[in-house]
Amino acid sequence: MAKKEEKNSIIEICPIRNVVARFGNKWALLVIFILNENNPIRFNQLGKQIPDISTKVLSNTLHILEADGLVKRTVFPEVPIRVEYELTETGKTLVPIILSLTEWANKNMKSIMAHRKRFETS
């Protein structure tokens, strides 16, 4: 039993598994990028900017980012209710990292795609 507890404690203190994995999924980086460009933005507007994301996945992604303090959700007491999302100060600190990663991806995409193709055909 002590071994399992030790394993869980290592996971809990690992920044990559505990923090980075939460915003490093398929959609979160794109949501953060779009929120940076359109701060604040309503849910439907955000969904229109990512047409291949389902409403459920977008909602879940925003929920995770909000839980981690990267996104702020504001509900306006209007009829109909208006909800806006924006990056928090902590969320904004990720933007330069995302831009740097995007630049790296742009520089290396052709090479990576060529390697994938060779790998798949071998």
Question: Mind explaining what this structure looks like?
Answer:
By secondary structure, the chain is mainly alpha-helical. 67% of the residues lie in helices and 11% in strands. It is built from seven helices and three strands; from the N terminus they run H-H-H-E-H-H-E-E-H-H. The protein has helices spanning 2-13, 15-23, 28-37, 43-49, 55-67, 89-92, 95-121; strands spanning 41-42, 71-76, 82-87. A three-stranded antiparallel beta sheet has the order 1-3-2. A hairpin with a 5-residue loop joins strand 2 and strand 3. The longest helix is centred in the last third of the chain and has 27 residues, at 95-121. The radius of gyration is 18 Å and the shape is globular. It starts with a helix and ends with a helix. The relative contact order is 0.11. The model has no long low-confidence stretch (mean pLDDT 89).
Highlighted features:
mainly alpha, three-stranded antiparallel sheet, 7 helices, 3 strands, 122 residues
Topology:
Elements (H helix, E strand, L loop, with lengths): L1 H12 L1 H9 L4 H10 L3 E2 H7 L5 H13 L3 E6 L5 E6 L1 H4 L2 H27 L1
Antiparallel strand pairs: 1-3, 2-3
Summarize the structure.
The protein has helices spanning 2-13, 15-23, 28-37, 43-49, 55-67, 89-92, 95-121, and strands at residues 41-42, 71-76, 82-87. The protein is mainly α and 122 residues long.
